[in-house]
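Per your request, structure below.
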């Protein structure tokens, strides 16, 4: 739940609605992964199920970072991947990041959405584009992409796939 005063705007309101809806689906997928499947990977080049699920959950924090900062410089980070030991830890981490992302979006004005945001590694700049474009591409679309991969991991492990954008073979009609 979002509380307090905010700069909530037309742009932010659309993103908040999308994230709120998509978070429910993402949570359903994460809840279905048990520690017994954490080490599963469909191919040697693939991430393990727990790494992919953790990546989906941690990418939500990129929304917060994009809203509150003007750049991300890998050279200044001490990144350590989130490594849950249980399904509950994974879901709790996702939920915590959703609350933070919703609050950050709520406090980002339309004007701030148009400000440039840069991804770099020291002297190497990967891109600079408006925050709204970063949120849509690097954050939202990227999360949904990896969530889609994760749904395939579920299928390959005979774990029921939840309805995502319509009925699934496991949950039937809407």
């Amino acid at each position: 739940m979002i509380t307090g005063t905010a700069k909530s705007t037309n742009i932010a309101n659309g993103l908040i609605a999308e994230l709120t809806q998509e978070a429910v689906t993402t949570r359903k997928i994460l809840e279905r992964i048990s520690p017994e499947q954490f080490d599963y990977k469909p191919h040697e080049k693939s991430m393990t199920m727990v790494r992919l699920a953790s990546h989906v959950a941690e990418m939500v924090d990129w929304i917060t970072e994009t809203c509150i900062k003007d750049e991300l410089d890998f050279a200044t980070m001490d990144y350590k991947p989130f490594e849950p030991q249980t399904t509950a830890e994974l879901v709790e981490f996702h939920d915590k990041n959703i609350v933070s992302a919703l609050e950050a979006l709520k406090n980002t004005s339309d004007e701030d959405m148009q400000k440039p945001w840069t991804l770099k590694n020291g002297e190497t700049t990967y891109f600079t584009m408006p925050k709204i474009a970063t949120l849509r591409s690097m954050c939202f679309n990227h999360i949904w992409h990896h969530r889609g991969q994760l749904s395939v991991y579920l299928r390959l492990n005979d774990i029921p796939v939840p309805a995502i954008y319509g009925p699934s073979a496991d949950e039937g009609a809407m």
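Residues 10-156 form a domain with the Four Helix Bundle (Hemerythrin (Met), subunit A) fold (CATH 1.20.120.450).

Regards,
D.
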